[in-house]
Write a structure and sequence with these properties.
mainly alpha
Amino acid sequence: STRTRPRDGAVRVVAAQPRRLAAVFGWSLLVWGVDVATAVLVLAALLGGFDGGVVALPVLLAVCTLAVSAGNLAKVLPLSQGGVGLYEAAFTGLVVGTTAIPVETAIAAAVLDHALKNAVTLAGGAAAAVGLNVSPTRSADEAPPSAGATDEHAESADF
């Protein structure tokens, strides 16, 4: 007998309902579009704008789409925290291998692009944690402490 994971049921529900499937596809497309647009803007900024002459905009869009895809695929390898280094290597390799963009510029773009995306992820996670009242020191089953209540297990502040 094959055991199913809890999320397998959710996948079946979404796949069986065309509107939900379309919504998931649409949101995914939007997120990937923002991901690629960020890389394009970072690389264009480092190249001096879209009319810098090093790479035409259609080529920049195509290369950044491939570079972001390769970088995200590289992050799947469990070799570093958050794919740091892996993303940059794949991104840089693809950009340098397919364009006349100097390696220094490609590395700078990869590092800045990944740092921006990680910063947004951290900020979004922090905002969600505050908004959902999630705590790293309390399980999801525990109620948050009421205002003014004291924790009998808390250590004394007296040193």
